[in-house]
Design goal:
mainly alpha; N-utilizing Substance Protein B Homolog, Chain A
């Protein structure tokens, strides 16, 4: 597994924990580092994803709410929401990462960490976000 995917998984796990505990980001990250054997080489990208996602959380959640028809954010499984938030941050704010890569990584993480239908849902939401916010023409 690539270091980037490993970093995305760790970021998803930290975002999940933040959502469940409502604890401050630095505390959750420190507790995570202490309790998990996470490679130091993964940490910079993990920190970028977690801090960037939480810094832009209101804007990300607004985009997700407007894109995910018939789904309120509070009704989404927390794993799916964490994956969506992180990938949306990448799509909207990290111009050095191809949006298709962010979407594919989110789908693969969902296949491993969520329900069988989650990857389809996540794909649909993120594809819509990419098209709406990046003015990507349809093929």
């Amino acid at each position: 597994m690539s270091p980037r995917r490993q970093s995305r998984i760790v970021a998803m796990q930290i975002l999940y924990q933040i959502q469940l505990t409502a604890a401050p980001v630095p505390i959750v990250m420190e507790q995570f580092w202490q309790s998990q054997d996470t490679s130091a080489k993964l940490r910079p990208f993990v920190v970028q994803l977690v801090e960037g996602t939480t810094a832009h959380l209101d804007a990300i959640d607004a985009v997700l709410q407007n894109t995910s028809e018939n789904w309120k954010l509070h009704r989404m499984p927390v794993v799916d929401l964490s994956i969506l938030r992180c990938a949306t941050y990448e799509i909207l704010y990290l111009s050095d990462i191809d949006p298709a890569t962010s979407i594919n990584e989110a789908i693969e993480i969902a296949k491993s960490y969520s329900t069988p239908d989650s990857s389809k849902f996540i794909n649909g939401v993120l594809d819509s976000i990419q098209k709406k916010h990046l003015d990507v023409p349809e093929c």
